[in-house]
Amino acid sequence: MRKLPVMLGLAVSALLLAEGCLTPGQQFGNGERYDDVGNYAEAAKWYRKAAERGHVKAQFELGRRCHGGIGVEKDYAEAVKWYHRAAEQGCAEAWQALGRLYGKGEGTAKDLAEAAKCFRQAAELGRAESQFLLGRCCHDGEGVAKDPAEAAKWYRKAAEQGWSAAQYELARLCVRGEGVTKDPAEAVKWYRKAAEQGHLQARYELGVILCRGEGVARDMTEGAYWLCKAAKQGHRQAREMCRKLNAKWE
C-alpha cells in the first residue's frame, strides 16, 4: 500500500515533464477535457498553449473565450487577434466571428465593408449562416453595393443547406420578384421549408398566401394549419386571422 502514493507521485511528475512534449493537438485535447468538467480557466490555458503553436481550432476557441469572457477576462481586441489567426488558416467560423466584431465595432473600428468581406470569406468556404449574413449585406447594401440578385444567390445557397432564415428571405424575394423572377409557387416552396423548421413569420405568411390564393391554388385547410401554428407561437396577426376563420390554435 505504501507504494501507491509513490507511484502516483511519479506519474504526476512524468506528466509534468511530458507537458513540453505534448503536440498542439494533445494540448487542445486537454483543453476540451477541462471544458467537459467545467474548468474553463484551465481549459483556456491549454487552448492558449495550442493556439500559440498554430493549432487552428485552439485559436478559434481562444478567440471565442476572449470574446465571451469564458475562463478569461472579456477582451474584444484579443478576440480579434485570435480570430484573425484562425481565419488566416481557413477557419470559416473565425471569419464569421470577425465579421460580427467588425460590424459592431467591438475590439476594432466599426467597418461594415470589412465585415462583409469576412462574411464572404466564410460564405465561400460553405458556411450556411455566413451565406445568409452575406445575402443580407447584399440586400440591405451594408458594406457592399445593394444587389438583390447577389442577395438572392447567397440566400439560396444558405437555404439549400437548410438555413431557415435564408429560406424565409428567399421566399420573400420570390413573392416580390426582387433579384429573381417573381414566382409565387417557388415562394410557397421556401416558405414551407422555413415553416417546417418553426420559423414564425414564415408560418404566418405561408398561411396568408394559401388562404388568399395569392398566385397559387387557394388551400384554406393548409393555410389555416400554418396560421394556427403561428398563432400558437404567439403571433398576434395570425391569431386575428384564426378568429376570423373560426380556427382554433389552442
How far do the termini sit from each other? 67 Å
Q: Fill in the CATH topology of the domain at 27-125.
A: Serine Threonine Protein Phosphatase 5, Tetratricopeptide repeat
Helix content: over 70%
Structural class: mainly alpha
Beta-sheet strand percentage? under 5%
Mean pLDDT across all residues, rounded? 93
Alpha plus pi helix count: 14
Order of helices and strands: HHHHHHHHHHHHHH
Radius of gyration: 25 Å
Name the overall outline.
elongated
Query: How many E strands?
Result: 0
Low-confidence stretches: 6-14
CATH-defined superfamily of the domain at 27-125: Tetratricopeptide repeat domain
| Main beta-sheet strand count, sense and barrel state | none
